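Dear colleagues,

As part of the handover before I leave the project, I'm documenting each prediction I ran so the next person doesn't have to rerun anything. This entry is a single chain, and its sequence is reproduced below.
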Amino acid sequence: MEAVKQVSVIKQEYLYRGFLSLKRIRLQHTLFAGGWDEEIERELIDRGDCVAVLLYDPDVDAVVLIEQFRVGALGHTAKPWLMEIVAGMVESGENPESVAYRETIEEAGCTIKELRYICEYYSSPGALSERMTLFCGRVDSSQVGGVHGVRAEHEDIQTWVMSFEEALALMKQGVINSATPIIALQWLALNREALQREWRSKE
């Protein structure tokens, strides 16, 4: 029989609040062998829930990627601009679907015709609270191009339209090297033919 898993939060406090928040948490949790571990302290970057959407045009087998500066890549590369997919944080009163539609307009300048849920996952649960909801969105890629983003949020986002095979090659070459677009492209590789049959029949 599987051991009962429990956690007891003894104390938590904010060490910093800003674009991201940092918490210190003192806790105990049960052990697989039974009983409780000693009290431990962990720092947690509190980011909240996020949404990402891979934009796909089944009619021409193309994906829409975006390129933007990412501070997390600073120090690892001379050019910390990453090839990613549309993504954003869930604000108060929003659900993941509405965020996908909003962020697609803001970051790629196009609209989603249909949305397909892929999965939810934790980006880096050892220290980050972020839970990502991932979608695939059907779009008309012929209407995509240019630079987008919300300037008040210092977004400067270049959109790219390329064939699925080109995007897959960039992933294999390590040009696409952040987790979310890798997960999304791998999902599309597994589901692309079925998605084409379903979405191409609608228009």
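The chain has three helices and eleven strands. The longest helix spans residues 179-200.

All the best with the project,
I.
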